[in-house]
Amino acid sequence: MASAAAPSIAHTPTGQIPLAAPARPGWKDSFSSLRVYNYRLYVTGQIVGNTGTWMQRVAQDWLVLQLTHNVGAVGITVALQFAPMLFFGLVGGVVVDRYPKRTLLTITQTFAGLSAATLATLTLTGAVQAWQVFAIAFFLGMVTVIDNPSRQAFVNELVGRKNLRNAISLNSSIFQLGGLVGPAIAGVMIHAVGEGWAFAINAVGYIYVVIVLRKMRTGELEPAPRQPRAKGQLREGLKYIAGKPEIIWTVVLVAFVGLFSLNMTVLLAAFAARVYDTGSSGYGMFNSLVAIGSLTGALASTRRSSVRLRGLVLAVGAVAVFQLVAAVAPDRITFSILLIPIGAATLMFLTGANSLIQLTTAPGVRGRVMALYLLVLIGAQAIGGLVMGQVAEHLGPRGALAICGSVPLIAAVVIGIVLARVGRLRLTVDLHRHGLRSFVRIVGRDGQTHG
After folding, report:
1. What is the extent of the structural domain holding 432?
2. Which residue spans traverse the membrane (predicted)?
């Protein structure tokens, strides 16, 4: 049962939020969160789990393409897997704020493992049909409604506020390491033994993740106050977000990136099959190149000493420009090289957005805030996957990728102008020393501090 002493959201300080370190972290501190035992244990599970998830993602998309011979069907698969977050994500955030995160993750990882085992069985027995893959993708999406905000909020309980930014960057690094290894393994396995074994290995990986969660030292966790069941908690969370300009503008940027820039898996399948005729091995290679860039961007984020909205705007602009150039790349080698900076800029943006939102959110409402963040991120990917799959069918892969770059670029320019003109929404970092802390302020044109 939740503690009656859980702090009210309305009384959470908003003017003293440690978004910046006094100086750029030293190299020895680039992995500071790994000094925490529970987080080290968690990392091993994430390496196994993320590698398997990437394997399944690549194998699933390729399986659908082979079953239907339609890039649009790949987009439908992506949409079905992400759509539940769009419709139920905020409700999932309320659930996450009410219950222990480790327990929720144990349940979600078990269900995800069962879905992978089911898909493996269907594929290996030759009984798989496209509608079955669609159904399993939708089921995984429902699991994600609880799993993703639980995972985001759980990181803070593992490492505490001091190491949170570092842990977020390392999580992204681990995710992209899985994205580097997973697609490469999947490409080899699809060619050698078929998609079914990739699903089977992923199912086994989920077993290990559950074991890791149960082996943690619960006494060393820093659990957020659990919110008691009450009416109006969803509305309370939305009201909290409405009073946070830094969260709102970050979410707007995430919406554009999620809708247009994060559907590379759909478009890479089209480029592999229709533009460069590289087959499944080429598709795996393209995904691996994006992951190399993403891993580089995530590791660079561990050295970030501050988080600012203007940095996020610049990162979105960089992603968009590289995608536009890739859309007109004259050959496969040039296209492949450009995938690396696309991945790097994308991860610099995502880790920055995640850090900014988590570090400016009160613990008691973090599940609901992260649910909104993930709703927009994943929901936009769901819509974008469906739309861009159809666009690729009608305009071709190059035309679709050009749209993916041009719209976020326009959005980044417009938002940058708005933030520059509306001074009260500009984040500045105050480096006055208070022990080892520095604070963020929202400063207006008149020089007065707002919040």
Report:
1. 29-220+232-443
2. 71-96, 103-122, 128-146, 167-190, 196-213, 247-271, 283-300, 312-329, 335-357, 369-388, 400-423
Tokens for 437, please give them. Answer: 């802390």
Question: pLDDT averaged over the chain?
Answer: 79
Cβ(180)–Cβ(292) below 8 Å: yes
225: pLDDT strictly greater than 70: no
Half-sphere exposure of 397 (CA within 13 A, CB side): 21
Residue 14 gets which letter from DSSP?
A: S
Amino acid found at 250: T
Q: What is the mean pLDDT of residues 199-215?
A: 93
Report DSSP state, residue 20: S
Q: Is residue 140 part of a domain?
A: yes
Cβ atoms of residues 19 and 244 within 8 Å = no
365 pLDDT above the threshold of 80: no
Report how far residue 93's alpha carbon sits from residue 83's, in angstroms, rounded to the nearest whole number: 16
The number of domains in the chain is 1
Q: How many Å is the Cα radius of gyration of the chain?
A: 21
Q: Which residue has the higher pLDDT, 338 or 244?
A: 338
Tokens representing 213? 């969660």
For residues 105 and 102, what is the distance between their CA atoms, to the nearest angstrom?
5
Q: Which residues contact 9 (CB under 8 A, 6 or more apart)?
A: 236, 237, 240, 362, 364, 365
In a domain, 227, yes or no: no
